[in-house]
Amino acid sequence: MGSTYPSVSISSFSVVLRNYPIIDMSYLLFIAVLELSYDLYILQ
Known about the structure:
Number of domains: 1
Distance between the termini: 12 Å
């Protein structure tokens, strides 16, 4: 379910990590919440 979505977010996450290593944790939390809400929305 949404197998392509996590890979896209992971690739963009690695790109952001290379450019902005300071906001890696906040971005990781943001992506985690985004994927959770996305999966919950799809499951409904």
